[in-house]
Amino acid sequence: MAVLEATVRESVVRSGDEAAAELFNAHYPRLAGWCRRLVDDADTAHEIAAEAFARLWSRWSRVEDPRGFLYVTATNLVRDHWRKVERERRGMHQLRTLAHTGAQRPPAADPDLRTLVEALPDRLRVPVLLHYYAGFPVADVALLLDRKEGTVKSDLHDARARLRKALEGAR
Hints:
Elements: H1 2-15, H2 18-39, H3 42-58, H4 66-99, H5 113-119, H6 122-133, H7 138-145, H8 149-170
Helix pairs in contact: 1-2, 1-3, 2-3, 2-4, 3-4, 6-8, 7-8
């Protein structure tokens, strides 16, 4: 992971753009840490953060809010990662079921919050990730997602209600 960060940093330095280098130094560690909490794997988190910066560099002159662009891009990459992990999990489950016809373990009775957030529909999950996990104010989330503030507030309310219901149902 340190190699990946160094590679991205070297690419930024070579570009000669001081604003890009300053943005990288200021936000890469925080973005990678945020991704780490979401994907629960340091290497994957650094890959996602590096990819978000790479996508930013390819659009550098056209992006008005680089920090927002990074977090929205990372959110989408995290979502893609979760989908991939879920597909792999389902595939392994099917293989185990075929290999052991019959006895299956009961599903976990107490889902963790991350699993519940992953299960939210995109329109609810993305605002939750940006607001509660990345720390963006509602107004910024609304701008980043091109939604009205009231819509974002409503989505966050709906997401909290769904999460609360899922957690109460798990008890």
